[in-house]
Amino acid sequence: MARESLISTSSVTRDIVAKLWNLCHILRDDGITYNEYVTELTYLLFLKMLAETGRESRLAEEYRWEELDKREGLEQLDFYRRLLLDLGNAKLVIDKGVLAIFGDAQTKLRKPTNLKALTDAIDRLDWFSAREEGLGNLYEGLLEKNAAEKKSGAGQYFTPRPLIDCIVRLIKPQAGETIQDPAAGTGGFLVAADRYIKDLTNDFYTLKPEEAKFQRFEAYKGLELVPDTHRLCLMNLLLHGIECNVESGDSLSPDGESLGKADVILTNPPFGTKKGGGRPTRADFSVTAETSNKQLAFVEHIYRALKPGGRAAVSLL
């Protein structure tokens, strides 16, 4: 059985998440809405977490946390705006994960004092304890907090983790299987499947090197339609040590065909009709080609994407 999520059991994680959420008051003071909170914090947390985990080599020196943190006032805000633009520029950044997180990124912060308050507050967090608990659990706790805030509207992209964990334990994903979520949201199903497999394999230590590499870089595939939610998904996966192919796109369009076949599909597809009332544009669809019902169309995608003998679980909550 997979271990229980630290999000619900660790007082340390809850305390740090509460402090991060309280930073939203600073953001709100700058006119930033609930549904923009976590996206805005993600940019800063990504830079700080790379510094805390010794992974800043993914960034050129001029884009690292220390360079932002040491600046003051309008100089800092101008530097931060330029940093966001540069990190999303393929001509300046070769790391695909960084490009995906910062693609089209821009800050809504307008007051230099608020940016400084955020960087100072993030610096003061107990990062030693956060690393011990797992930065992925910390970030997922922030996503959960955002989803629980009704005004944020984020609940539709965040399936409750106890439900996800239950589904994953029933499906029993295994090392070496390709696992797909065509409506990835913030990546909860993929993170839980990875956690389950890590428990079975002693964090991949019982796997051969090529098998462990497959789990980290190739085992998980997915699509997420909403760009900002896709950004949160990538950050969540990255902090859990998953660097697989989860793209921004629509599974009910030809993008979905590019996902290929999977041994396991775990997903919580959206309710209602396709945005704008349009029908799926998949050339391979037949059963749902004439309907705009998203859930039925996702069922057809799952049917077509499963390998022979594959397993699927669909949550409609």
CATH architecture of the largest domain: 3-Layer(aba) Sandwich
Classified in CATH, the superfamily of the largest domain is Vaccinia Virus protein VP39
Helix content: 40-55%
Q: What is the topology, as strand order, of the major beta sheet?
A: 3-2-1-4-5
Describe what this molecule looks like in 3D.
There is one protein chain. The protein is α/β, with parallel strands linked by helices. It has two domains: 6-152, N6 adenine-specific DNA methyltransferase, N-terminal domain (Ferritin), CATH 1.20.1260; 159-314, Vaccinia Virus protein VP39 (Rossmann fold, 3-Layer(aba) Sandwich), CATH 3.40.50. Helix content is 51%, strand content 9%. The chain contains 16 helices and five strands. It has a five-stranded parallel beta sheet. The longest helix is centred in the N-terminal third of the chain and has 16 residues, at 37-52. The radius of gyration is 20 Å and the shape is globular. The two termini are 23 Å apart.
